[in-house]
Amino acid sequence: MIDTNTTAHGKWSSRYAYILAATGSAVGLGNIWKFPYITGENGGGAFVLVYLACVLVIGIPIMMAETMLGRRSQRNPIEAMEILTKEANADSHWHYLGWMGVIAGLLILSYYSVVAGWASAYILKAFTGSFVDADASAIKTLYADFISSPIQLIFWHTLFMLATMYIVVKGVKNGLEKAVQYLMPALFVLMFLLVAYAMTTNSYFQGLHFLFTPDFSKLTSNSVLTAMGHAFFTLSLGMGAIMVYGSYLPKDVSISKTVFMIAGADTIVALLAGIAIFPIVFANNLHPSSGPGLIFETLPIAFGAMTGGWLMGILFFIMLSVAALTSSISLIEPAVAWLVENRGFTREKACIWSGGVTWLLGLGTVFSFNVWSDFKVFDRSIFQLLDYLTANLMLPIGGFCIAIFAGWIMSPKHSEAELDMPIAQGYQAWKLLVSYVAPAAVFFVFLHVIGVL
Ligand code: TRP
Q1: Is residue 3 part of a domain?
Q2: Of 63, 199, 251, 314, which is most buried by a Cβ count within 10 Å?
Q3: Residues in contact with ligand 1 (CB, 6 Å cut-off)
Q4: What is the mean pLDDT of the chain?
Q5: Coil/strand/helix, residue 377
Q6: Which of 63, 233, 322, 393 to mutate to test the pocket of ligand 1 (most atoms within 8 A of CB)?
């Protein structure tokens, strides 16, 4: 994938490799773990509708913008913003945007790695038969016992961070490219099988109803913010990850087409996860709003009950861990690229530093599920605080700035040439969305949340 041997700043081996890597970054815990549980906490249908609208009018245009900024500058996000600002004769403060991205990436990774560790731990639980014929309450106890043990969570968090660092040091060229190539399609197939299982429960339509029948009275301004924040999170936007990936993108690849494919695949995986999970929730009298444990309390019931469930459970949690791994490398890559390109670090040293800091931060999340569970700031645990700060605040702010930069600061001559849309109206539509609609939407949601509107 990224060929770091020939030049300081590598290139993707092909358009296909880029799509694979960017889809790998987008599809992850956000789709399968986070989307279902925040949908459950925010009342279902109306939340899903707002999320889909945000992907379409905010996420997709900003994803094109972010890819474009990366490809034009061919640099890591901090330098990219410096170069592009010079090119546009703009104020030099824009490079703080790159900084915020690097920090947001490490903050997100700190809790992402802990949850990815849960997924890896569940491979072993599936393997040892913990789910076989277990009922909902046994599965719930299994999860509760697991997260109450700091030692176990630290062990799996450490393992996952080491795996991430190992891959980032090695470069992603061989192992992971192959893994993603087979495991992503396999993940799709498994999601369909889980949906098929959900159809056999007698709560399938109740699940669909919950997901797709909007009841706007359940929507608060904070749920709208969460839906919007999640559109950024799930597409890996607003912190420079897609900018880094774009910077490795060859000039002859169409940004608009690839962005549509990536966003489409990402959305389908999230919806499939929702369609599989909610029928199981209702069939077992569980609560949709049970929080971050939702998939760990529901899917094992399905694996325990269905034929071939033992193997499917193992495969599912392996794929979830790999999907998390292909996302986590994009969270750490901006920091690593910057340390290597600007601070003269070797790749090893850069990975050890960024990984070490992230690992340490992750302990806060580990403890927020057990020994520090009573410690709350603004009524939120450390995990919830980190999630709110990054997904709901930093990513939308980063995305807002990217939209303003691409729509107002960068010369239209440059953006039109970079985007190279198949139809002329495509560029006009993008320009309108990125200059007005997306920034205004982010702005109004913020105003609403702080109570001004
Ligand atoms: N999109 C990933 C997911 O849904 C998470 C992720 C990877 C991410 N890179 C990112 C989120 C950059 C925000 C920014 O699981």
Answers
A1: no
A2: 63
A3: 25-26, 28-31, 108, 233-234, 236, 239, 241, 327, 330-331, 395
A4: 91
A5: strand
A6: 233
